[in-house]
Amino acid sequence: MKTARRLDIIEEYYFSSKLREVRQLALEGKPIINMGIGSPDLRPSQSVIDAVKLALEDENAHQYQSYQGLPELRKSMADFYLNNYEVALNPNTEILPLMGSKEGIMHISLAFLNEGDEVLIPNPGYPTYTSVTNLVGAIPVYYDLKESTDWEPDFEALEKLDLSKVKMMWIGYPHMPTGARGNLGLFEKLVAFAKKHQILLINDNPYSFVLNDNPMSLLQVTGAKEVSLELNSLSKTFNMAGWRVGMVLGNAAAIDAILKVKSNMDSGMFFGIQKGAIAALNSDKSWFDSMNVIYEKRRVLTEKLAEKLGCKVYKEGVGLFVWAKLPEGSVSAEEFIDQILQEKSIFIAPGTIFGSNGEGYIRFALCVKEEKVQEAIDRF
User: Residue 100 pLDDT more than 70?
Assistant: First the structure.
């Protein structure tokens, strides 16, 4: 049976295929240390676990749930944005809970892109932006992010592009994979650019509380809601990656368009998970501080490992990863990490999976306990 033509222009997600190889090596007895994927190994808070347990006894827990999520979940999301970003949102019209922000990338693309529309995608950037763009029949147009410009867009270069068919632009600050922070001045330029060219601007924002003392939202910019959406997630901030809880936020008309897609693709988020998410969103600053104490220790050790490999670490980065430049004259990023995987049983992500500008770089995830990072160092 012949598959759809859309499958001819995408590949299986890198981590889906590569982790099969890593798992096979582990089954063969290799002492694998996985520093490649950003899946937090830490637990959610006890209050989150308790909220889910309690929810299981609720008489409504096992029924279909609202496509828009519980009203109290949307209220918690609105309060979270107000308390942490000073952004006011209407919980009834400007917030839509998602089963992870990754599905939001698909929902947004289905809601706004027609076949042949063009989409500005960062290079390097999250690979899902490209694959989803291809799946819906739109055309990826890559814009460069480079270390020389602190991994921020070159607006002069953007203005020289033919933007007549561009419908959407993906950004993500703090940036994945580099950890570049971004700033409100950059957000203001991006919003102005989007308004000038009538482009829908989406900020993918799951990392703003990890090792970052200045969390920001694109929606802090005056007038941003007119042309912008923001995705956020509980995966990294609250150690809930497997729970699949995210949100998309922005103006009511855009949220309503996304809901039209979403309501035809799922039957609501499990009640217990929503209750756990509410407990997480109500966490105070001490939660973020406690996580960052752990991540800071891991980052120090991971930087030591990167430097032991002869790499130059991007010290300004925040978030869940360490981005490092390979030694001059070394092999390609993929050859470099494959050699380390085979010889030292350590898996690191090659920068090339995030785009051509990732060549010459590797990425370490801070999702490995300190003693395991030290073990990785000792193997060298």
Answer: yes
Q: Read off the pLDDT of each residue in 124-139 and give the average, rounded to a whole number.
A: 94
pLDDT tens across 318-354, in order? Answer: 999 999 999 987 889 989 998 999 899 999 999 999 9
The pairing of strands 228-233 and 166-171 is unpaired
Residue 24 pLDDT > 90: no
Displacement of CA 379 from its chain's centroid (Å): 30
Residue range 111-128, pLDDT digits in tens: 999 999 999 999 999 999
pLDDT of res. 329: 79
Q: What is the spatial distance between Cα 49 and Cα 299, in angstroms, rounded to a whole number? A: 27
Dihedral of alpha carbons 205, 117, 260, 4, sign: negative
**Would you put residue 46 in left (φ > 0), alpha (ψ -120 to 50) or beta?**
alpha
- CA dihedral over 292, 297, 300, 305, signed as positive or negative: negative
